[in-house]
């Protein structure tokens, strides 16, 4: 069964005009569809238009032109329903330090006009693993708990889509892994997740599909796997029993990254060299190979190439 589109964007433009500067295209003819239940990544350097896009859906930035449809609601005709269908987890931690998580969520539910009997505060606290801290002051929570509390706030009105804006910016590795786990659990509950990030590892780990934005233009939109398959460069590190004498271009597309006493690291294009040729080249001087490790490149390679072009 084909999943239906939960978010559909056609020819979306946002142009900022100012007297001093010329016009800036923050978003330039953006077209994309997000399917129900997927984790969708919006990638791009700072100033690529990711936050502008989120703010248009949040209702804090007015689009210049184009169509946006969320959960069947048109942004022009039903802006309130669009906002109600989206939960946004901001980058900055903006919590009142003297409220407890439970109090904050109850307050948020009140702002959304959710009646007492329809609130799911305890469920949400469990979902983000804060039930034990439900009644502690927010200021006593750790950094990771505060991040999870922001996610909880965005879930109060039970939106079908959650936007995470740079969810792990400035967060240590352990915490990042924990947040990923939480986001995946949410997704398993049926929430569609859209996340902006400039950590390529995050996109690779989390996202089913990825759109790459640069200066307001979409430069790629594909499944994570297809984007990774496009990478042609392979890196190989070989440990040997003596120094190897090879140089750039001994094989077509071969580049020497480093050549130490007992270890050589090279890169090459997958379509011009197979690894056997490389091994034969290294063994040419009767060197013994002790260990080989290969690296197929990562999204960073795709990213840099797309943004360069």
Query: What is the average of the pLDDT values?
Result: 88
Give helix % range.
25-40%
Instruction: Fill in the CATH topology of the largest domain.
Output: Rossmann fold
Q: What is the level 1 CATH name of the largest domain? A: Alpha Beta
Reading side by side through the largest sheet, how are the strands ordered?
Answer: 6-7-8-3-9-10
- At the fourth CATH level, what is the homologous superfamily of the largest domain? P-loop containing nucleotide triphosphate hydrolases
* Percent of residues in beta strands: 25-35%
User: What is the architecture of the largest domain at the second tier of CATH?
Assistant: 3-Layer(aba) Sandwich
Give the N-to-C terminal Cα separation: 37 Å
Specify the number of helices: 10
What structural class do helix, strand and pairing data support?
Answer: alpha/beta
Biggest β-sheet description: 6 strands, mixed
Low-pLDDT runs of 5+ residues are none
What does this structure look like?
The chain is an alpha/beta fold. It folds into three domains: 1-85 and 159-174 and 187-229, Rossmann fold (3-Layer(aba) Sandwich), CATH 3.40.50.300; 95-158, no CATH class; 233-308, Alpha-Beta Plaits (2-Layer Sandwich), CATH 3.30.70. Helices cover 30% and strands 30% of the residues. The protein is built from ten helices and 14 strands. It has helices spanning 50-58, 79-84, 101-111, 121-127, 143-155, 173-188, 200-206, 224-229, 275-283, 299-308; strands at residues 5-16, 24-35, 39-43, 65-70, 73-74, 86-89, 161-165, 192-197, 209-214, 217-223, 233-240, 255-259, 263-269, 289-295. The strands form three sheets. It has a six-stranded mixed β-sheet, with helices on both faces. A hairpin with a 7-residue loop joins strand 1 and strand 2 (24-35). The relative contact order is 0.13. The model has no long low-confidence stretch (mean pLDDT 88).
């Amino acid at each position: 069964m084909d999943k239906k589109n939960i978010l559909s964007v056609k020819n979306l433009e946002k142009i900022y005009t100012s007297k001093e500067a010329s016009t800036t295209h923050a978003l330039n003819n953006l077209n994309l569809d997000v399917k129900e239940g997927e984790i969708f990544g919006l990638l791009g350097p700072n100033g690529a238009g990711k936050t502008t896009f989120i703010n248009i859906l949040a209702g804090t930035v007015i689009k210049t032109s184009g169509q946006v449809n969320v959960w069947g609601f048109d942004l022009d005709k039903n802006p309130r329903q669009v906002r109600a269908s989206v939960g946004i987890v901001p980058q900055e931690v903006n919590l009142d330090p003297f409220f407890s998580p439970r109090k904050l969520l109850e307050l948020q539910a009140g702002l959304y006009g959710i009646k007492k009997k329809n609130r799911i505060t305890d469920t949400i606290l469990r979902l983000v693993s804060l039930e034990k801290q439900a009644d502690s002051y927010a200021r006593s929570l750790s950094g990771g708990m505060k991040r999870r509390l922001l996610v909880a706030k965005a879930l109060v009105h039970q939106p079908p889509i959650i936007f995470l804006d740079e969810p792990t910016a400035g967060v240590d590795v352990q915490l990042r892994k924990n947040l990923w786990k939480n986001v995946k659990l949410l997704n398993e509950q049926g929430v569609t997740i859209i996340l902006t990030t400039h950590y390529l590892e995050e996109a690779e780990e989390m996202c089913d599909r990825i759109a790459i934005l640069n200066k307001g233009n979409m430069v790629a939109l594909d499944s994570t796997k297809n984007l990774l398959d496009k990478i042609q460069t392979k890196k190989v590190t070989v440990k040997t029993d003596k120094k190897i004498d090879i140089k750039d271009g001994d094989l077509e597309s071969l580049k020497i990254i480093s050549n130490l006493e007992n270890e050589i690291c090279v890169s090459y294009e997958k379509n011009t060299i197979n690894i056997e040729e490389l091994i034969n080249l290294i063994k040419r001087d009767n060197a013994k190979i002790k260990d080989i490790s290969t690296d197929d490149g990562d999204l960073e390679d795709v990213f840099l190439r797309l943004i360069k072009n």
